[in-house]
Amino acid sequence: MAPTPTPPAQPDDSPQSYVGLDAAAAERQARDRGWKTVRSLPPGSVITMEYMKGRINFEVDSSAVTRCWVG
């Protein structure tokens, strides 16, 4: 029987550290820290709620991150 693959570890990062940053700077920082998918969304966006390992989400208003969460 083939071994079950183990997904790579998610970056050890605090989503709160991105709040207040410029959206472009936050995206660069997230990619530098190892996030595979970085998603920027306007406030109130309708999104699916599936959890995706390795993804960080930014809610961006007036070019600044106002909220951040993983998955």
Automatic annotation (TrEMBL):
This is Proteinase inhibitor I78. It holds the Pfam family Inhibitor_I78. Gene3D superfamilies: Trypsin Inhibitor V, subunit A (3.30.10.10).
